[in-house]
């Protein structure tokens, strides 16, 4: 990714994080965090990865609700950016944290079973 693409992605990430806390609080989705933005080479498309904390609904449903509000989000973003074109936004659920928790739990289970094995050997 070029330096310009990275800078635009970071700016969009920052602006969207601010917008999500202010403008989309009525979604009742808990804490919405933009974890990553990936720009297309022509800067006309932004893939936005979101994560949720403290939500009661499935993440896929929340992403659908955010995508439904995409025209409003894009309008608000366009007012804040000084670009020729406001990129089209596509929102995706970022399951990195859930995946990391799952791996951590599996590692802890292996560690516990290993400790039990060694405990039985010494007894």
Order of helices and strands: HEEHHEH
CATH C-level class: Alpha Beta
CATH topology: GMP Synthetase, Chain A, domain 3
The portion of residues assigned to helices is 55-70%
CATH superfamily: K homology (KH) domain
What overall form do the CA principal axes indicate?
elongated
What does the radius of gyration come to?
Answer: 20 Å
Distance between the terminal alpha carbons, to the nearest Å?
A: 57 Å
**Cross-sheet strand order for the largest sheet:** 1-2-3
Low-confidence stretches: none
SS element count, helices: 4
Domains, number:
1
Question: Could you give the count of β-strands?
Answer: 3
Largest sheet: 3 strands, mixed
- Coarse structural class: alpha+beta
Mean pLDDT: 84
Estimated share of beta-strand residues = 15-25%
